[in-house]
Amino acid sequence: MNRRPVSTAPISLSLRKLRYFVAVAEELHFGRAAGRLHIAQPALSQQIRLLETELDTPLFERTTRRVSLTAAGTVLLDQARRLLVSADGVERAARELRDGERGILRLGFVDSTAYEMVPRFLRRFRELRPNIDFELHSMSSDEQYVALRDGTIDLGISRTAGAAGDLDRWLLGSEPFVLAVGSTHPFADRQSVELRELGSESFIGFDKEVSPTLHAEMRLLLAAAGVRLELAMQATEYTTILGLVAAGVGISMVPSSVRTFRPPGLRFIDIADEDARVDLVLLSRPAAPLATVQAAIKVLTELTVPELDLET
Known about the structure:
A hairpin with a 4-residue loop joins strand 1 and strand 2. The protein has nine helices and twelve strands. Helix 5 crosses helix 9. It folds into two domains: 85 residues, Winged helix-like DNA-binding domain superfamily/Winged helix DNA-binding domain (Arc Repressor Mutant, subunit A, Orthogonal Bundle); 205 residues, D-Maltodextrin-Binding Protein, domain 2. By secondary structure, it is an alpha/beta fold. Strands 3, 4, 5, 6, 7, 10, 11 and 12 form an eight-stranded mixed β-sheet that branches. It has a two-stranded antiparallel ribbon with strand order 1-2. Strands 8-9 form a two-stranded parallel ribbon.
């Protein structure tokens, strides 16, 4: 008895042929299936014959009056449907990634924006892009410059763009500094102070090694008023800085948005000097290609400035 040799060659099926097969199997009519697929009936018939040749088995019984599935066709129909659903899911996910509807946004931000700006941005962006996940990194402006260049983060919300010459940047606003003092400090009952009055004060501020650019800019600001910036104590978070101020260890100049954090024993006083301000800057790598990043830039530049009531 002669038997046809069993082929061991791998079978390569195109998704297009499987879609054609499913359409014919569901319609059981080549004309209706061709109309559903928007192709000519002869072309559809040819593709089905090619599929049967590739599989080395008939998938349909054809007569002049009817079309029906063979046993092999019935088995293939179930598997083809599952495969096409999976393929559609992959295509949809890829399309969402391309269009910025799905993915991960890695955001670096300075500690002071964690109280107002970052929560507002996250709420708004989640409304617009609910399938985007976030990696949030609290870091100094200088740490953001490094993280953007080495690809650790996609966007940075910084207090200064001093050393970010090769990065794209958007000025989100300019925020006044306020003076944080303990409740027993001589300035505690004042409405405002001038920078020149701070010459004998002990300052608490960000670590000079972690935030050298911001430290240098604040030193120049105070020097213009005749005040030498000498840090009696350094920290890396405003919660720590303000806790030390409340404990009477020293005073600190902080962005006005930090006033939302009010531990007991702390007072915030306006600084009268008009130039006692600090910028808020959005940073990214040049021509950031990801649609997710572009969408975030759009939300940040259009939404946060008016909501934070910052001057631009």
